[in-house]
Design goal:
Elements: E1 11-17, E2 26-31, E3 44-45, H1 49-54, E4 69-72, E5 96-97, H2 134-155, H3 164-177, E6 183-187, E7 197-203, E8 209-215, E9 229-231, E10 234-236, H4 240-258, E11 266-272, H5 285-288, E12 293-296, E13 301-302, E14 308-314, E15 316-325, E16 329-330, H6 341-353, E17 365-373, E18 379-380, E19 383-392, H7 399-403, E20 408-409, E21 412-422, E22 425-426, H8 428-442, E23 446-451, H9 457-460, E24 467-468, E25 475-476, E26 484-486, H10 489-504
Parallel strand pairs: 8-11, 8-12, 12-24, 14-23
Antiparallel strand pairs: 1-2, 2-4, 3-5, 6-7, 7-11, 9-10, 10-26, 13-14, 14-22, 15-19, 15-21, 16-18, 17-19, 20-21, 25-26
Helix pairs in contact: 2-3, 2-4, 2-10, 4-10, 8-10
Length: 511
């Protein structure tokens, strides 16, 4: 074969993993810089001693590629393309066929990329070997396989907030998916007339206690419900991202740790049935206040540099309700004798919304979302209500909004109350070391992110400093009939959840 120049691609990561053909060792290489396109004969790759040294003596291949791909390092070279690698002087001296190597993954979506394809420092000085924790590696693939089927079963139960039968069906599925070691308890929900919440507890022999948190209620009603659909690398179903996909991962994490009781003292799974519509106080904080860590499985995300992201900061959230009381009158024969509640609310809306300043120091958002008034087309409306969704970094910033509601407009009386006040969450400082160590376990970076949406994790963060949210699979379309999760993210986020959970259960003194 005619010799040709070969440009070596500096590997910045070599990540052992089990590949789809169950070979004993494969790896992901990433190029350190873009090679020229003509670096070797078509269809072939060439060996190089530098790469062999990098992986500690295994037969090595210099990869000719424009992106990352999986390469089998330790299979005998003669197995590829039927060539005898030893005939030319031993492994690493003859070319092998690229067609017999695993193909590069082809992302179906910009957010669904190779799990190892995240930015690193491109300097050769940062050449390194990343090793994933054995517990993560051995369990993540099985979790992903089980999670897809389990998600299909859970989303088959339509469970919009407030629907008793739907909530009971969803909880029954979750109980069936719990490990046999778990004891199951149904406890009163924070919202009256809602189905009871679920608490499952697993006892261990270790020292620390871990809470896994989620909810089974959804926003989408029965009219828009349908079975799970698989399409273009996505799993579509109401509630898939918010947050039945996360619930399934939480149950799988519990199953993994049930087999390792030496790692924990107690693991509890709390699944509530009213998260999407709760306006009352959350009743479960005191019971779990002394736990060492809380992991919530709302939908995951990417960091700004496309790292694995988890949520460590959330806004406070409130629901402001303005009620109007006017006077009815015939809109044709005596329109001016009435006191029009609809007009009063319409005038009040912009006066309240002027506090909206999402880019301000408190990131305050004041958004009118619902207005109701009137019962007939020919009657001056005597009553009505106006609802705002209010969010900001601190609950204290809500008070000026409440004070801005006028007591009277156009002869119509206005009364305002906050029906829901969810605290903000800021676990950035408390979880910084946790995420750094979890990243080392995972072999890729996990970063903390901020999110505007409310979550029950915010209730626990003030009493459980190690509170991490956003551990569920990545997806989109939340609160719509087109809600989905990325199929590949089930495994990727299972790896993240296991890494964070393992580190959270470590003794903080390093013993």
């Amino acid at each position: 074969m005619q010799a040709v120049p070969v440009q070596i691609i500096g590997a910045e990561r070599v990540e052992p993993l089990a590949d789809r053909d169950d070979r004993p060792l494969a790896a992901v290489l990433e190029q350190g810089h873009r090679p020229s396109r003509r670096v070797g004969p078509p269809g072939h790759v060439h060996p190089d001693a530098a790469l062999r040294k990098l992986i500690g003596g295994c037969p090595a291949l210099a990869i000719v590629a424009q992106g990352s791909e999986e390469v089998d390092f330790c299979a005998e070279v003669r197995e590829h393309a039927g060539r005898d690698a030893t005939a030319a002087g031993g492994p690493g001296e003859s070319a092998v066929g690229v067609d017999h190597l695993p193909r590069p993954r082809q992302p179906r979506d910009r957010d669904e990329v190779d799990p190892f394809d995240v930015p690193d420092d491109r300097s050769a000085r940062h050449l390194r070997l990343s090793l994933m924790d054995d517990t993560i590696r051995s369990n993540a693939a099985e979790i992903a396989t089980r999670a897809e089927r389990e998600l299909e079963a859970l989303v088959a139960a339509s469970s919009p907030s407030g629907d008793l039968e739907g909530a009971e069906e969803a909880i029954a599925v979750c109980v069936a998916l719990l490990p046999v070691e778990a004891s199951v308890e149904r406890v009163p929900c924070s919202t009256k007339r809602s189905a009871a919440d679920l608490v499952a507890t697993i006892s261990g022999r270790g020292a620390r206690r871990l809470l896994l948190l989620g909810h089974v209620d959804t926003v989408i009603g029965h009219h828009a419900h349908g079975p799970l659909k698989r399409e273009s690398g996505r799993l579509y179903a109401p509630g898939a991202a918010d947050m039945k996909g996360g619930v399934v991962l939480a149950l799988e994490v519990a199953r993994v740790f049930a087999q390792r009781p030496e790692l924990f003292s107690e693991i509890s799974v709390l699944l509530v049935t009213d998260e999407e519509w709760r306006t009352t106080d959350f009743r479960h904080v005191e019971r779990f206040a002394n736990y060492d860590a809380c992991l919530c499985f709302e939908a995951g995300e990417r960091g700004q540099g496309r790292e694995e992201g988890v949520v460590v900061k959330r806004k406070a959230a409130g629901t402001l309700r303005v009620n109007a009381t006017g006077r009815a009158a015939h809109s044709g024969s005596a329109p001016d004798q009435g006191r029009n509640a609809l007009l009063a609310l319409a005038e009040a809306a912009p006066a309240i919304a002027r506090f909206h300043a999402p880019t301000g120091p408190d990131r305050l958002s004041v958004v009118p979302t619902i207005i109701r008034s009137g019962q007939a087309f020919n009657v001056v409306p005597a009553a009505g209500e106006l609802i705002f969704d209010v969010r900001g970094d601190r609950l204290e910033t809500f008070e000026p909004v409440l004070d801005a509601v006028p007591r009277e407009l156009r002869g119509v009386e206005l009364t305002a109350t906050f029906e829901r006040r969810w605290p903000g969450m800021d676990s950035r400082k408390a979880t910084r070391s946790l995420l750094e160590k979890a990243s080392a376990r995972l072999g890729r970076q996990i970063v903390g992110a901020s999110r505007g949406g409310a979550s029950d994790a915010s209730h626990f963060a003030p009493v459980i400093p190690l509170t991490v949210d956003g551990l569920g699979p990545r997806g989109g379309g939340a609160h719509t009939p087109d809600e989905f999760v990325f199929t590949q993210s089930l495994r990727q986020r299972a790896e993240v959840a296991l890494a964070v959970a393992l580190e959270a259960l470590c003794d903080p003194l390093g013993r």
